[in-house]
Design goal:
Elements lengths: L1 E5 L3 H12 L3 E5 L11 H7 L7 E4 L5 H13 L5 E4 L5 H12 L4 E8 L4 H4 L2 E5 L2 H14 L6 E5 L4 H29 L6 H7 L9 H12 L15 H11 L5 H12 L6 H14 L18
Helix pairs in contact: 3-4, 7-10, 7-11, 8-9
Pfam family, one: NAD_binding_2
Keywords: Gluconate utilization, Oxidoreductase
Enzyme class: oxidoreductase
């Protein structure tokens, strides 16, 4: 098939390559002219065949960049054409974008994409939402992008189904990463275990906690055993927050995923104000020791 691809960063650029390797024609546009095949969205649309539905796949940052791109495509495309949002948009944005495009008879598919920089080689896990007719227009590209065995699902016919599924996927990812990280910290904290990387490596075979995330953690600690080169600061992409918000909206208990999200917030504090308050209260009600700021010569006495 012939398809337009907007956004040629790490994910989008590799997706273009994988599609071309599968024999598809891809016209790519990016604000970076060194990456782009054409110099504008209008040129991209013009380059697609006029005798069939024009399909444009958008891979730009979620929020306003995606909304602005889709609004521009709404003016350039026509009835029967299709826009695919393959970024990390919030599912509520999908509903608004589908309504906008639908007013001009333009179809819409939202597609959550997972696979990162490894997707070019291994394929991308795809979770997509949209009508059967709209999905059929982009099916050849979906088949080319997904892994050879499974890894793709039509999550639902309503706009947002794909990104909602990907949102929950990322929430689970938060929790799994946090569990591995806490286990690693405990093993590092004791003198009893002498080879922490080897312990994690042993878990990769024959255990119930083996996973690709575990493989990636093993690779990281093999390069930097104590992770000394890294700062203990973890961003959140937004999807963890959206998952917790959706849990609240639907009265679904989500203890572990919520805790893993808040742990990322804690990682951004060099000296947690909340823990200062906890220490102060423990001292007030029980006389428990508090740690004061260290003097120039070293740490203050915990009994000071």
């Amino acid at each position: 098939m012939e398809i337009g691809l907007v956004g040629l960063g790490k994910m989008g650029g590799n997706m273009r390559t994988r599609l071309r390797n599968a024999g598809h024609t891809v016209v790519g546009y990016d604000r970076n002219p060194d990456l782009a095949d054409v110099d504008s969205l209008a040129a991209l649309v013009e380059a697609l065949p006029a005798d069939g539905p024009k399909v444009v796949w958008v891979m730009v940052p979620a929020g306003e960049p995606t909304r602005a791109t889709i609004a521009e495509l709404n003016d350039l495309l026509g009835e029967g054409d299709l826009v695919v949002d393959g970024g990390n948009s919030k599912y509520t944005d999908d509903q608004a974008n589908a309504e906008l495009l639908g007013q001009r008879g333009i179809g819409f598919v939202d597609c959550g994409v997972s696979g990162g920089v490894w997707g070019l080689q291994n394929g991308y896990a795809l979770m997509y939402g949209g009508s059967d007719d709209d999905v059929a227009k982009v099916q050849p590209a979906l088949d080319a992008l997904k892994p050879d065995d499974g890894g793709a699902v039509h999550a639902g016919s309503k706009p947002g189904a794909g990104h909602f599924a990907k949102m929950v996927h990322n929430g689970i990812e938060y929790a799994m990463m946090q569990a591995y990280a806490e286990g690693w910290e405990l093993l590092e904290a004791v003198d009893l275990v002498e080879n922490v990387p080897a312990v994690f490596d042993s878990w990769r075979t024959g255990t119930v906690i083996r996973s690709w995330l575990l493989d990636l953690l093993v690779a990281a600690v093999e390069e930097d055993e104590h992770l000394d080169k890294l700062r203990g600061y973890a961003d959140d992409s937004g999807e963890g927050r959206w998952t917790v918000e959706a849990a609240i909206d639907n009265a679904v208990p989500m203890h572990v995923i919520a805790a893993s999200l808040f742990a990322r917030f804690s990682s951004r504090q060099d000296d947690s104000p909340a823990m200062k308050a906890v220490a102060a209260m423990r001292n007030q009600f029980g006389g428990h020791a508090v740690h004061t700021a260290p003097p120039a010569g070293g740490d203050a006495s915990p009994d000071a």
